Amino acid sequence: MLEAFKVSVDYLKSKTTIQPTVGIILGTGLGGLVNEIEIIDEIPYNEIPNFPISTVQGHSGKLIFGKLAGKQVVAMQGRFHFYEGYSMQQVTFPVRVMKLMGVEHLFVSNASGGVNPNFEIGEIMIIDDHINLFPAHPLIGKNFDELGPRFPDMSKPYDHQLIDNAKKIAEKNNIRVSTGTYAGLTGPTLETPAEYKYVRAIGADAVGMSTVPEVIVARHMNIPCFAISIITDLGVPGKIMEVTHEDVQRVAEVQEPKMTLIMKELISSI
């Protein structure tokens, strides 16, 4: 696998002059941050050696290289999910590639279901911790000592300074934000009422199908992480409604400009 990472990196370096220090992963309905990037190069996933291909509606499937808020960045316009049939190593492959290209901070967005009874649809939640409920782990198997330790610490999965700065940015711009714990499940089904109740009982505020694997791998490589979630539906008793993927996209797109502003100013501050 280490050789596969390097092959991908060598290919990308041959296609762009950008040397990214910031990596960005954009979730469902949240691809608009790309419009803020001064794009230098766009490389479809299917042209990159060893890269998986995004199969989900709302995920474009290309790496964007450019400049944002004074930083050189690489953005995943479309991520990979365990429920697409990929292994955890494939899901997190791009994060390994980002590290080997020089990325020093990772910014992640997602759409999720809220289980905190105080949340409303459209709530913007800064993730300050997560619960890994996936049946597989991205670090199982051979450890690459060149990238990180066999038993990485996870006491601070999300960077406290970035979280504090994001809260200040939100307050300055009159954007309501919450902080909370994100539970990662496989999907692709949305949760049953009993499952929502379970997720809330074990300490989560939101539940989704991504983010946790990428953050685990980033922290394995000592990359500070910041993640933000838009609550697109509620798993709260009395507020649970039938939801489609299109509903999730619509809510995410409405709140996207606020998330984009926070992310852009936060990237500028590092």
Give a written overview of the molecule:
The chain has a five-stranded mixed β-barrel, surrounded by four helices. The chain contains seven helices and nine strands, in the order αββββααββαβαβαβα. Helix 4 crosses helix 7. It is α/β, with parallel strands linked by helices and 270 residues long. Strand 7, helix 5 and strand 8 form a beta-alpha-beta unit. The longest helix is centred in the C-terminal third of the chain and has 25 residues. The model has no long low-confidence stretch (mean pLDDT 93). The protein has one domain: Rossmann fold, CATH 3.40.50.1580. It starts with a helix and ends with a helix.
Overall number of structural domains: 1
Q: Flag low-confidence runs.
A: none
What shape does the CA trace take? globular
Q: How far is it from the N-terminal to the C-terminal residue, by CA?
A: 31 Å
CATH superfamily annotation: Nucleoside phosphorylase domain
**How many E strands?**
9
Instruction: Tell me the number of helical segments per DSSP (H or I, 4 or more residues long).
Output: 7
Strand arrangement, largest sheet? Answer: 5-8-7-6-9
DSSP strand content:
15-25%
- Rg (C-alpha, Å): 17 Å
CATH topology: Rossmann fold
What's the overall average pLDDT, rounded? 93
Quaternary class = single chain
Helix content: 25-40%
Largest sheet: 5 strands, mixed, barrel
Helices and strands, in order, run as HEEEEHHEEHEHEHEH
CATH architecture classification name: 3-Layer(aba) Sandwich
Strand pairing plus helix content: what structural class?
alpha/beta
CATH class category label: Alpha Beta
